[in-house]
User: Which sequence fits this backbone?
């Protein structure tokens, strides 16, 4: 088939607002709820009218040593396409359903919490929109348990600073960071988020730095820990810069870390397993 590109999301399970002060469920229980909500054979239509189908490949899944917590399957999106049909007296256009798919593997072991998925623009194109669709699918059932799920992309290591260094000026930086439950996160960012959570019991922290004249200072030693936290899947960032005398906005979702491998077919279990391990190594996780 050729080269197949893969992207990777970290997922977070957090209590929704009215359950912030209740005793939290064990991660194992939360994980089982998410399996039922998202990683089972299902069909789902988003609020924007996009139809998805998920199919779990149980037989292939057993090739893993810890098969209960590593899920393998296919994600498909409905399209409408036209074919041309010959009849004895005419050639007619016929509208049919088409379900292009990508393979995925989800490592649900506590601390890893990674969803690796093949990239195909027929199934998803804009990362931000797809991230919202994943969240919508998961939370349709997770809300009933008092929890919500968020998905954040792993980002290229030097993308943030390449944007900053090549800009003529910086108007603003926005960070949105999940509560400190990201394993392997930078200690400074993790501790700062823990302190905020102790005070406010928040499950997300957001902050903006801005300068209307594009003269914002961005000291690396002050920002790096939060940038690295976000890039490991702990949140996302947005940067507004001046370049070529124009104001431009860059988002971390446009800078996805990818792994590309040669494969004969989509949704091959051994290929996805190899790619998962590559992402875990890049993210400094134990395999």
Assistant:
């Amino acid at each position: 088939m050729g080269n197949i590109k893969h992207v990777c999301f970290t997922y977070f399970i957090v209590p929704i607002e009215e359950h912030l002060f209740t005793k939290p469920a064990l991660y194992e229980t939360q994980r089982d709820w998410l399996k039922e909500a998202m990683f089972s054979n299902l069909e789902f239509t988003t609020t924007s009218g996009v139809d998805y189908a998920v199919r779990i490949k149980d037989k292939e899944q057993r090739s893993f040593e810890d098969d209960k917590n590593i899920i393998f399957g296919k994600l498909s999106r409905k399209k409408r396409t036209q074919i041309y049909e010959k009849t004895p007296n005419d050639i007619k256009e016929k509208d049919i359903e088409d379900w292009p798919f990508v393979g995925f593997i989800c490592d649900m072991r506590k601390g890893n919490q990674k969803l690796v998925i093949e990239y195909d623009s027929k199934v998803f194109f804009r990362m931000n929109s797809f991230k919202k669709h994943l969240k919508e699918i998961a939370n349709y059932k997770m809300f009933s348990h008092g929890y919500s799920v968020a998905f954040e992309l792993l980002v290229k290591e030097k993308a943030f600073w390449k944007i900053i260094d090549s800009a003529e000026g910086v108007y603003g930086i926005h960070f949105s960071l999940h509560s400190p439950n990201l394993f392997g996160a930078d200690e400074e960012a993790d501790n700062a988020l823990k302190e905020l959570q102790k005070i406010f019991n928040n499950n997300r922290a957001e902050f903006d730095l801005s300068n209307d004249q594009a003269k914002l200072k961005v000291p690396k030693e002050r920002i790096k820990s939060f940038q690295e936290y976000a890039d490991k899947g702990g949140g996302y960032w947005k940067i507004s810069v001046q370049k070529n005398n124009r104001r431009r906005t860059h988002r971390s979702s446009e800078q996805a870390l990818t792994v590309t491998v040669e494969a004969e077919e989509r949704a091959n279990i051994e290929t996805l397993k190899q790619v998962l391990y590559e992402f875990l190594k890049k993210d400094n996780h134990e395999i």
About this structure: Residues 159-253 form one domain. The chain has a mean pLDDT of 88. The chain has two domains: 2-154+256-282, 159-253. The two ends are 28 Å apart (CA to CA).
